[in-house]
Amino acid sequence: MMATEAQEGKILTHEMQGRRRWLAFMVLCLGAIMIVLDSTIVNVALPSIRTDLGFSETSLAWVVNAYMLTFGGFLLLGGRLGDLFGHRRVFLVSITVFTLASLACGMATTQWFLIAARGLQGLGGAVVNAVVLSLMMNLFPEPGERAKAMGIFGFVCSGGGSLGAVLGGLLTNAFDWHFIFLVNLPVGAAVFALTWKLLPASHGRAETGSLDVGGAVTVTVSLMLAVFAIVNGNQAGWTSARTLGLLAVAAALLGLFLFIESRVRSPLVPLGIFRSRNVSTANIAGILWAAAMFAWFFLSALYLQLVLGYNPLRVGLAFLPANLIMAAFSLGLSARLVGRFGLRIPLAAGLAAAAVGLLLFARAPANGTFIADVLPSMLLLGLGAGIAFNPLLLAAMSDSAPEESGLASGLVNTSFMMGGALGLAVLASLAASRTGSLIASGAAPLDALNGGYHIAFLTGAVFAALAAVLGGALLRETAGSGPGHAGTAPGRTEAVAGSIH
């Protein structure tokens, strides 16, 4: 007889005790940190990739978007695959896919080969991210040990963001950008071998469920078409037949996705979950904040290297203060703020701080200095992100039944990734359009480039401010999340926050 998820946890904990269980946990952390690291290590190398492969400013966004779209599109499906076919088996397959895709990225010599390989990386990374938390939950069924493990996991993953920025600068500066992908090969091979040795095999429940392939395909293709239309809007024209046609097809596929989810027996996203005000508010706020955050990572790296003339290592070090602050809050500071003040105040305050950080970047001059024009923005953005992530995730999960907690956390992760992809496409296009108009009016090329970044940062600040207002006005406190209730949920959601970092 196939084991249920609860039985799977008992099997794991029965077979794995003491030191062996914690060794397995660290191997899973290593696999997760490889995925997190990849989302930040690439940002530092973007200018070098652009020069080497001849990307335009707008098409360069696809190096990030291809990863984000497949990552976000397959998060929910990845969790379902683990339920059906066994989390360990799916984890091993997805680590293999991610590692081979990293090899392909490292060997890329053309734009479209790199973009395709990045999309495959996103697919593997999504499934790893979706099943690794389930494996960890099964390793630690006791609440005390689980909270400890999830706190460590959140800190490790947040630290991966810091490590990625610095490592990306070191590798790109010492060798070239190909090595930011090739570094995954020995790590992926070690994770596969150690997982195979340390984690016992487990069974899924394939005979009791079905795979909502139609839902996953329609929503992913819909969003990919929408982003493609937006990224190419400047070149093709925003009112051209191609742009409007692609957007219409994307809208039709999204409608088809909603229809499928309302009819299929085992939907990827049961639509009833959106009847919760907190779930809906948290997901909308997550989309807005992600649009601002991914634009910050993408555009500030370009500003530092193309406008201020930083080399890749200096770019990586410039991001270090923000990433260290986010890591510190993931270790538990954000959870304590939620326990003291509830959900709304930390969420609104964190997003407001991030909005101010983006506003400061929107006035950074072409001859700016790190201390005066970069560091204050980085500190505010790191502080804002570190404070806001935990209450955002708690709000998304607060009204969910225990059996839907995985769906709720996967849904907010998906919203975050898709919001980031769409927001980055919009803001990169706005920056390119503004730069073009400034050059046409006679501005110097460097001033025109910086002016384009200014309008993108300003728009990102508006997104973050809207998310702050929305969260502060519409979220409602729940039992255990108000002032004086620290609860136990933060330990769990810190791990999800770490995966987003």
Summarize the structure.
This protein has 501 residues and is mainly alpha-helical. The protein is built from 18 helices and no strands. Helix content is 80%, strand content 0%.
- Derived from helix and strand composition plus strand pairing, the structural class reads mainly alpha
As residue ranges, the low-confidence spans are: 1-9, 11-15, 484-501
End-to-end CA span: 39 Å
Radius of gyration: 22 Å
Strand content: under 5%
What composes the largest sheet?
Answer: none
Global shape = globular
* Text of the CATH class of the largest domain: Mainly Alpha
What would you say this structure looks like, in words?
The model is unreliable at 1-9, 11-15 and 484-501 (pLDDT under 50). 58% of the residues are buried. The protein has 18 helices and no strands. It starts with a helix and ends with a helix. The chain has 501 residues and is mainly alpha-helical. It has 3 domains: 1-211, Growth Hormone, Chain: A, CATH 1.20.1250; 213-254; 269-501, Up-down Bundle (Growth Hormone, Chain: A).
